[in-house]
Write a structure and sequence with these properties.
With 101 residues, the chain is mainly β. It has strands spanning 26-28, 35-39, 45-51, 57-62, 67-71, 78-86, 91-99.
Length: 101
């Protein structure tokens, strides 16, 4: 014999996500040996943050007039992730770049 209890007075719980439309971003040269350039027409982008594959922040650059130049000469060869954020600290876009020495 199996007894099943059905509860009819339950609440639905969820999360509202605030999604921003991704911006267009050029990242070059990729792979890089000394500098990576970030370029966008978005006026919302204020900063680009680079992370190694463990999630550690390895570089941060301000985006001014849609452009940022990140020094990668002190980074080891490998793949790095980046996030472009706005002044409200929302992620506008993210991706990867390579450093090759």
């Amino acid at each position: 014999q199996t007894i099943t209890t059905i509860q009819t007075n339950y609440d639905i719980v969820g999360l509202n996500s605030i999604s921003k439309a991704e911006i267009e971003l050029s990242v070059y040269p990729n792979p890089s040996s000394s500098f990576v350039n970030f370029s966008t027409v978005s006026t919302e982008a204020t900063k680009v943050v680079a992370y190694d594959m463990t999630g550690k922040v390895v570089a941060t650059e301000a985006i001014e007039m849609g452009k940022a130049k990140m020094n990668t000469s002190n980074l080891a060869s490998g793949v790095y992730m980046y996030q472009v954020i706005n002044k409200e600290k929302q992620i506008l876009t993210s991706g990867k770049f390579n450093v090759s020495k």
